[in-house]
Design brief:
The protein has helices at residues 2-31, 36-70. With 71 residues, it is mainly α.
Length: 71
């Protein structure tokens, strides 16, 4: 079960990187001085990445938890 723990940790870290990317992308869009419609469109583009990153982080942490309980 050690492999499940390490795989879950890697997936969780990748999810965290995705969350950080989405935060940086939205912050750059806000600082660029876009109008409201363009800013909403940019946030709409980043939202699926953000949700997928949170899902990945959650699944990775669940894998770590299950691996820890089974070992």
């Amino acid at each position: 079960m050690t492999y499940m723990i390490w795989a879950g940790a890697v997936i969780s870290v990748l999810g965290l990187c995705g969350v950080i990317y989405s935060v940086i992308a939205v912050a750059r869009a806000k600082r660029s001085g876009m109008d409201d419609a363009a800013l909403r469109a940019r946030i709409g583009q980043v939202m699926p990445i953000n949700l997928g990153a949170f899902l990945s982080a959650m699944l990775g942490l669940a894998m770590v938890l299950v691996g820890s309980l089974l070992s």
